[in-house]
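Thread amino acids onto this structure.
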């Protein structure tokens, strides 16, 4: 059960509501976000809400049978818009394109990518400064200094930054230089990190875990929302299956299912999803047709020289072409009556 509270409710009214609903056998968790105040009731799924609907301070009550509550579409039918300012948003009914290198490598590389994005009409740049690498000897990223430099150059160009945060202690130091905090597939169930990202007023893009279910992704998003932050984007980036012909198995099924289950925007990462440069465009466009609200992919001036993930990275010509194809495919999708 989700109880939406009226604005500026005195604490004594909240306490009274909590005590009353607890009396009906519910365990209550209060949630305050940048947009609202809620009481989350865990208990019977069958409850006659008329028993409490008249109580003062309640704006709305919703019975949500899913294990996740606040990210469910069962109470919030209207899709969530992630507004990043400067007329840049990620939302249902639009197509966001986020592109950039796997790793931020140098000033020259940042400038090259920014120029390419500007020419292609892309205003969201991805890139890692803290890199989770399978080998401890691989390039681990430029760190905070790289992020500061990137931020300065991106701001001048009117470009927003999407970058991975790997641990709680990095949140505060990265905060001023980030537009979207990315939670990587290896951290999807780092519940301490998710809790802390609930405390910030910045968008959070959560990737699906390497072996994570759709339900687990939604539960991870529930951590951030219930921690206090409603600005969440879900990302399908492929899961590990028995198939070895591709890096991961991009689960396109997840797109319509996530869109049906949650009000949050959903984006697709075809680069990590298939892991093979030549096939990234096909999977990106399939993601668009599957109902995604955005595509996030890797691009680099010289992919074969990239410090990480070059094998799945597009060069700038391929990237420009793909951005154009994404827009055309999205325009086509809009002409269909797909859910
Ligand atoms: C990345 O985006 O570069 C990355 C490491 O992604 P993932 O967490 O999906 O592997
Ligand atoms: Mn990568």
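Threaded sequence (339 positions):
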């Amino acid at each position: 059960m989700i109880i939406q509270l009226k604005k500026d409710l005195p604490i004594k009214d909240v306490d009274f509501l909590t005590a009353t609903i607890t009396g009906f056998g519910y365990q209550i968790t209060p949630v305050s976000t940048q947009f609202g105040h809620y009481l989350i009731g865990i208990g019977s799924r069958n409850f006659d809400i008329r028993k409490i609907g008249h109580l003062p301070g309640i704006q709305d009550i919703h019975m949500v049978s899913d294990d996740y509550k606040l990210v469910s579409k069962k109470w919030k039918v209207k899709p969530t818009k992630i507004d990043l300012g400067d007329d840049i948003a990620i939302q249902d009914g639009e197509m966001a394109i986020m592109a950039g290198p796997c790793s931020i490598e140098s000033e020259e590389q940042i400038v090259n990518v920014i120029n390419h994005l500007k020419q292609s009409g892309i205003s969201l740049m991805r890139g890692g400064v803290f890199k989770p690498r399978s080998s401890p000897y691989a390039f681990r990223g430029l760190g905070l200094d790289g992020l500061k430099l990137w931020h300065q150059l991106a701001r001048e160009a009117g470009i927003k930054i999407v970058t991975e945060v790997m641990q709680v202690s990095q949140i505060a130091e990265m905060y001023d230089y980030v537009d979207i905090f990315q939670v990587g597939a290896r951290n999807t169930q780092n519940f301490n990190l998710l809790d802390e990202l609930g405390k910030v007023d910045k968008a959070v893009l959560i990737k699906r875990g390497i072996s994570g279910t759709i339900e687990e992704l939604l539960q991870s998003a529930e951590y951030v929302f219930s921690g206090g932050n409603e600005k969440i984007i879900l990302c399908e980036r492929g899961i590990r299956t028995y198939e070895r012909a591709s890096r991961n198995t991009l689960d396109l099924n997840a797109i319509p299912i996530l869109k049906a289950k949650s009000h949050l925007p959903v984006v697709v990462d075809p680069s990590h999803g298939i892991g093979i440069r030549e096939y990234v465009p096909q999977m990106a466009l399939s993601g668009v047709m599957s109902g995604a609200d955005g595509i996030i992919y890797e691009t680099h001036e010289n992919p074969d020289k990239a410090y990480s993930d070059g094998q799945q990275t597009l060069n700038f010509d391929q990237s420009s072409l793909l951005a154009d194809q994404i827009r055309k495919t999205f325009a086509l999708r809009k002409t269909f009556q797909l859910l």
